[in-house]
């Protein structure tokens, strides 16, 4: 018998927790709950959940501080579920290490799909040396990139950008996070330069750079690599 994935809900609204519990348990997840940040952090450390659903408006501390605390010792998937829908809050949560962000009210099917995607990413512990995306092939050992069996010449920066997106497949990466990881902390405000490099990379790997299917723009936030199979 397979073990049910455990999901921790950190939310002070009992009605939301009830709805989430019914939804998740009907989809064969085990659910544990916490109604404030302090208890949520304790449950995250002791109950060993597979994923956390975190509200930002908690009674004892802001959800951002809970996320920051959890990220100091764990990389387990954290999905923000909040009424806050400003670009600033979404970017802040993603920069602090959230894996996804969904606003209330939410559609059950979308919530479950995002949970499945986050759990799939988390389960890919062993990295394959070969990554395939449509006709694109990346050999992480030889550091070669081919498209339809023809080698693509990438600059060192373009390759670093591509690998960052690949290693975070399906996850939204903010402009600042990408700039910091690829170029360094002093370049985190150079969003225009990032757009130029993404455009160059798309011209080399996408079938139709004007209508990209692999590197997707999340407007005002960042970019996401999608596996098109």
Describe the secondary-structure layout.
Blueprint: E1 6-10, H1 14-26, E2 30-34, H2 37-46, E3 51-54, H3 63-71, E4 78-82, H4 87-95, E5 100-103, H5 108-123, E6 130-133, E7 136-139, E8 144-147, E9 150-151, H6 156-167, E10 173-174, H7 175-182, H8 191-205, E11 215-218, E12 222-225
Helix pairs in contact: 2-3, 6-8
Account of the 3D structure:
By secondary structure, the chain is of the alpha/beta class. The protein folds into two domains: 118 residues, Rossmann fold; 96 residues, Winged helix-like DNA-binding domain superfamily/Winged helix DNA-binding domain (Arc Repressor Mutant, subunit A), CATH 1.10.10.10. 40% of the residues lie in helices and 21% in strands. It has eight helices and twelve strands. The chain has a five-stranded parallel sheet with strand order 2-1-3-4-5, sandwiched between helices. It has a four-stranded antiparallel sheet with strand order 6-7-8-9, with no helix packed on it. A three-stranded antiparallel sheet has the order 10-12-11. The model has no long low-confidence stretch (mean pLDDT 90).
Give a brief outline of the structure.
The chain is an alpha/beta fold. Helix content is 40%, strand content 21%. The strands form three sheets. Strands 2-1-3-4-5 form a five-stranded parallel beta sheet, sandwiched between helices. Strands 6-7-8-9 form a four-stranded antiparallel beta sheet, with no helix packed on it.
Q: Quote the average pLDDT.
A: 90
Helical residue percent? 40-55%
CATH topology of the largest domain: Rossmann fold
Please tell me what the overall shape is.
Answer: globular
Strand arrangement within the widest β-sheet reads 2-1-3-4-5
The radius of gyration is 19 Å
Quick one: CATH class of the largest domain? Alpha Beta
What count of domains describes the coordinates? 2
The total count of strands amounts to 12
Termini distance?
A: 30 Å
Give the CATH H-level superfamily of the largest domain.
Response regulator
Largest sheet: 5 strands, parallel
Q: Which series of helices and strands comes N to C? A: EHEHEHEHEHEEEEHEHHEE
Strand residue content? 15-25%
CATH architecture of the largest domain: 3-Layer(aba) Sandwich
List the uncertain runs. Answer: none
